[in-house]
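Is this the right way to post structure tokens for a design question? Let me know if I should format differently. Anyway, here goes:
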């Protein structure tokens, strides 16, 4: 078993950039001895490689790899004679490291056209095929049971981060040189991939075996580590992570308007138990969902919410900006109260006023309309409809004199001569 624990750049780069070479080798050699595969096969294998004997470079025996997920996997070899006339005798034997040859008997079948050896452990196997007319040949293969290893666990967690710990290992396999019995290593590498369900942030999930995220999950997740070797076998390990992390969050409605601006703050925080709202006007609240807050003075307000969880994790969010429009007043010089729905009222365009006073006089000095309002009354004011003193009697067309006074929430006064003038009434 080969442990891969990337404590330095050397191991990491060998993992990251060594695998493509191995896979290229695998693709190339797949097409070499197709005939041999037809003569000696292994049903249910995950991968096949071919030997490279230093003493016999021209011999390419198949290496059959099973994924041993259950831990109880065994191998099977099926043999068909590449020549001769049957029936045949198939004599199976296994490689022995003691004799450095295929000297351990496995089974023999006579008078058959094909033969199978089942329930095989790892090792090298040879079948000798003969017939009654002197035909004699050997077929050789190696069997390996591949079991990659993975272990995923939580290394550490705080309010601000989650650190994962992983272990990855792959089997190291050796076959033997059939001439001198020396060990030959079968190439095998490892890849790994971290993931979570539901998906969450894991920095460099296929590069860092012990990743650490400062963007921890707000919901409970299952972290998974999948280890795959270059022989195509894999192992997966996982653990359930119950989140302790918090997030301050809220919505604002509306975020802009005239004074007094009433704003509703809706809490959307995760795992908060203690709240502190700072509204930007020297007022605070410690309620999870405070009542609507009124801003009276025009300007910009930055709102901050700070939360704390039962485990004393702290987070905050700032909303910039809530805008309360400055006071403003604009007066029209004509209106047409003829009932066509267009310009039927004499109404001033206003914003952020504490109060508004409007008096309108005829040319003879008789007051035909008067209004004073503040707060909700001011907001609902629709203007002068052209009737005399709110009666059903319509004012005659002509020129009227107005006197307007107002005070903004920013303490701007509107009461000088430019707020006294004439308006034309047309019907």
């Amino acid at each position: 078993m080969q442990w891969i624990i990337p404590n330095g750049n050397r191991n990491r780069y060998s993992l990251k950039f060594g695998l493509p070479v191995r896979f290229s080798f695998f693709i190339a050699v797949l097409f070499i001895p197709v005939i041999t595969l037809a003569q000696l096969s292994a049903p249910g294998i995950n991968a096949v490689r071919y030997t490279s004997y230093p003493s016999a470079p021209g011999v390419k025996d198949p290496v059959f790899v099973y994924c041993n997920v259950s831990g109880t996997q065994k191998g099977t070899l099926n043999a068909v004679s590449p020549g001769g006339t049957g029936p045949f005798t198939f004599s199976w034997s296994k490689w022995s490291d003691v004799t450095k040859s295929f000297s351990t008997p496995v089974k023999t079948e006579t008078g058959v056209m094909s033969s199978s050896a089942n329930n095989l452990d790892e090792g090298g196997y040879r079948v000798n095929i003969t017939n009654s007319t002197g035909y004699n040949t050997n077929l050789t293969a190696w069997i390996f049971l591949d079991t990659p290893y993975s272990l995923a666990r939580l290394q550490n967690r705080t309010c601000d981060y989650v650190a994962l710990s992983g272990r990855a290992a792959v089997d190291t396999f050796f076959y033997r040189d059939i001439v001198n019995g020396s060990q030959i290593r079968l190439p095998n590498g490892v890849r790994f991939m971290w993931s979570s369900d539901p998906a969450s942030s894991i920095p460099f999930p296929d590069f860092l075996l012990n990743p650490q995220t400062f963007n921890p999950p707000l919901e409970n997740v299952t972290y998974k580590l999948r280890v795959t070797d270059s022989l195509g076998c894999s192992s997966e390990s996982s653990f359930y992570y119950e989140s302790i992390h918090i997030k301050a969050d809220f919505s604002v409605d509306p975020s802009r308007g005239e004074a007094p601006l009433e704003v509703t703050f809706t809490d959307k925080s995760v795992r908060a138990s203690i709240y502190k709202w700072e509204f930007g006007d020297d007022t605070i609240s410690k309620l999870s969902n405070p009542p609507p807050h009124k801003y009276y003075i025009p300007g910009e307000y930055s709102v901050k919410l700070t939360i704390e969880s039962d485990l004393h994790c702290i987070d905050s969010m700032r909303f910039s900006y809530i805008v309360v429009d400055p006071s403003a007043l604009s007066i029209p010089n004509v209106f047409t109260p003829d009932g066509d729905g267009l310009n039927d009222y004499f109404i001033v365009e206003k914003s952020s006023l504490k109060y508004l006073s409007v008096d309108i006089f005829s040319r003879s000095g008789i007051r035909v309309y008067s209004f004073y309002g503040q707060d909700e009354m001011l907001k609902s004011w629709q203007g002068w409809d052209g009737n005399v003193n709110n009666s059903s009697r319509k004012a005659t067309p002509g020129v009227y004199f107005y006197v307007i006074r107002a005070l903004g929430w920013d303490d701007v006064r509107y009461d000088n001569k430019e707020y006294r003038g004439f308006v034309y009434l047309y019907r």
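Format looks fine. Someone answered above. Worth noting: DSSP finds three helices and 34 strands in the chain. Residues 9-29 form the longest helix (21 residues).
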